[in-house]
Design goal:
The protein starts with a helix and ends with a helix. The chain is globular, with a radius of gyration of 18 Å. The protein has 141 residues and is mainly α. The chain has helices spanning 2-45, 50-63, 68-80, 85-97, 103-110, 112-140.
Length: 141
């Protein structure tokens, strides 16, 4: 068993270290872009009430394409800029679960009906999660 674990672990570490510069570069670039443009983005898009801001956050997350770890940086910048927790949560969840931009590829691989249904369910679930997170935090505090 050890003869399979050690090579697998070595291969995993090699892949991790090969990917590390790309991930760090992406995170640094995202942080730089958000620190430069966060005020303009948040001022122009958000600030229209909880319901509309949540829908806007979910819509942006659905079409945005990026690495899930970058979404936490963007979410933190949005919170720091005064965007509501509901909108930020909707953005984070849809960024990771909804993929409008790769819907054509997903449709080819998994079938159009399945891909569309999965994205619709993920979008609706993200909205529910976005409204339940602040409610849960209020109940716990």
């Amino acid at each position: 068993m050890r003869d399979r674990i050690v090579p697998g672990l070595k291969k995993t570490l090699q892949g991790f270290f090969a990917l590390l510069p790309v991930v760090l570069g992406m995170l640094l670039f995202t942080s730089l872009a958000m620190s430069l443009f966060a005020g303009q983005i948040t001022g122009a898009l958000f600030g229209h009430g909880v319901l509309l801001d949540t829908l806007i956050g979910a819509s942006i997350g659905s079409v945005a394409l990026g690495h899930p770890s970058a979404s936490y940086i963007l979410g933190g910048e949005f919170l720091a800029a005064g965007v509501g927790l509901e909108a930020v949560t909707a953005f984070l969840v849809t960024w990771v679960t909804v993929g409008i931009t790769h819907l054509p590829a997903e449709s080819l691989l998994l079938g159009q009906r399945f891909a569309v249904l999965r994205n619709v369910i993920a979008f609706v679930s993200a909205l529910a999660i976005a409204w339940l997170v602040p409610l849960t935090l209020r109940m716990l505090s």
